[in-house]
């Protein structure tokens, strides 16, 4: 309460100073207008600090992991202050791509072959100027997995690379087949249930730098893919730790939420057109497997998955695919430390589908659940251009694991 009062006084003082300089006194020359605005501002500040700004819920399956995070990743126990003028889920989700900066990153591209004759595009940030890890063979490596139709150009990926650069780490971005401008050599794309390409990438990266600390971070669908991989392979992975952000835990619940009228209008239809565009570029590769005209008429992600993704990967029905794609059913088998950040107001991942009880049964898992933040939003500050709460969680966690991960052994 003492901290709340201090925050309230500070915010009220800042609002008062701002308004004194910016707002002209109206209402026939009296100070009534300014007084009303100041009164409203103080009332809003009280509401914001009492109902919006909250500490995240930390759910762990073991006391040691909880203590580790409190000691070395304290951001997960600190109050999250969403942007005061944009804390609602949809607003955070929609604004984040437009309002956050895109730090310049110079990539080195590598194309690697797959067992089926395909190729995967990897974008490397080698960080050869690292002063902390001059020896490239031991420089920590962070594998980054973008979202549904995302690539290495996404702002949240660029921010993670910028933060990793500050820590002296190397990054490599795993671009899913066919989305980063490379040719599709086989009639196959990607889905979050099939982990074969990810396994190929992890093996390849580890073989290049076997002595380096190796971590992974996945965002949205990239996080779902990462968790499904970890749930399948258990502790037998070269990764020492992983983090996920805004994961859809139950694909059925995600689809149902995104098909509500407003969510369909704001998100679902647009993402469906992005998926259609990504496969239509390689249309000639799929004509023998799927009815591409039917695929291009899909109006939702579920329809696209039913007509394309589930067929592409040999599932009998869309329900079979969605069951296999849901990472909540594999969380109990994760065998390395994993931190999962979700907002309970995320319309892409409804709060009722977050596997809290399952997480409590696995000592390797920590859920960090904020009250607000939307989907890959987590905007904070008056003008959240340079950093988000998600960025701070990422930086503190990977640094904690690299420098203190031995404490969990």
Automatic annotation (TrEMBL):
Transmembrane regions: 25-50
Predominant location of this chain? membrane
Gene3D superfamilies in the record, alphabetically? alpha/beta hydrolase
**How is this protein situated with respect to the membrane?**
Single-pass type II membrane protein
Q: Which Pfam families match?
A: Abhydrolase_1
**Which Gene Ontology terms describe the biological processes this protein takes part in?**
medium-chain fatty acid biosynthetic process; medium-chain fatty acid catabolic process; phosphatidylcholine metabolic process
For this UniProt record, the keywords arranged alphabetically read as follows: Hydrolase, Lipid metabolism, Membrane, Phospholipid metabolism, Serine esterase, Signal-anchor, Transmembrane, Transmembrane helix
The identity of this protein, by name, is Phospholipase ABHD3
Whose protein is this, by species? Callithrix jacchus
């Amino acid at each position: 309460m003492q901290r709340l009062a201090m925050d309230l006084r500070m915010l009220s003082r800042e609002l008062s100073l701002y308004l004194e300089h910016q707002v002209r006194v109206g209402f026939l020359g009296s100070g009534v207008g300014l007084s009303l605005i100041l009164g409203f501002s103080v009332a809003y500040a009280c509401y914001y600090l009492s109902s919006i700004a909250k500490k995240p819920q930390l759910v762990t399956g073991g006391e040691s992991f909880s203590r580790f995070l409190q000691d070395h990743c304290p951001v997960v126990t600190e109050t999250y202050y969403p942007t005061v003028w944009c804390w609602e889920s949809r607003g955070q989700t929609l604004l984040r791509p437009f309002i956050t900066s895109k730090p310049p990153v110079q990539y080195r591209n590598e194309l690697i072959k797959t067992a089926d004759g395909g190729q995967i595009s990897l974008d490397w940030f080698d960080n050869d100027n690292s002063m902390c890890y001059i020896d490239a063979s031991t420089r920590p490596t962070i594998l980054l997995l973008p979202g549904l139709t995302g690539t290495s150009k996404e702002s949240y990926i660029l921010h993670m690379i910028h933060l990793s650069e500050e820590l002296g780490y190397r990054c490599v971005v795993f671009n899913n087949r066919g989305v980063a401008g490379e040719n599709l050599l086989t009639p196959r794309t990607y889905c979050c249930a099939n982990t074969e390409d990810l396994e190929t990438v992890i093996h390849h990266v580890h073989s290049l730098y076997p002595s380096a600390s190796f971590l992974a971070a996945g965002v949205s669908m990239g996080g779902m893919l990462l968790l499904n991989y970890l749930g399948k392979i258990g502790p037998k992975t070269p990764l020492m730790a992983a983090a996920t952000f805004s994961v859809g835990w139950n694909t059925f619940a995600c689809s149902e939420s995104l098909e509500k009228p407003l969510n369909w209008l704001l998100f679902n239809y647009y993402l469906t057109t992005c998926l259609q565009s990504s496969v239509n570029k390689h249309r000639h590769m799929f004509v023998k497997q799927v009815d591409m005209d039917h695929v291009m008429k899909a109006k939702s992600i579920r329809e696209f998955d039913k007509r394309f993704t589930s067929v592409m990967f040999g599932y009998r029905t869309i329900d079979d695919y969605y069951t296999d794609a849901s990472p909540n059913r594999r969380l109990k088998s994760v065998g390395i430390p994993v931190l999962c950040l979700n907002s309970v107001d995320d319309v892409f991942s409804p709060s009722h589908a977050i596997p809290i009880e399952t997480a409590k049964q696995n000592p390797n898992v920590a859920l960090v659940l904020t009250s607000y933040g939307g989907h890959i939003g987590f905007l904070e500050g008056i003008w959240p251009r340079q950093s988000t709460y998600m960025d701070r969680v990422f930086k503190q966690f990977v640094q904690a694991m690299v420098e203190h991960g031995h404490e969990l052994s």
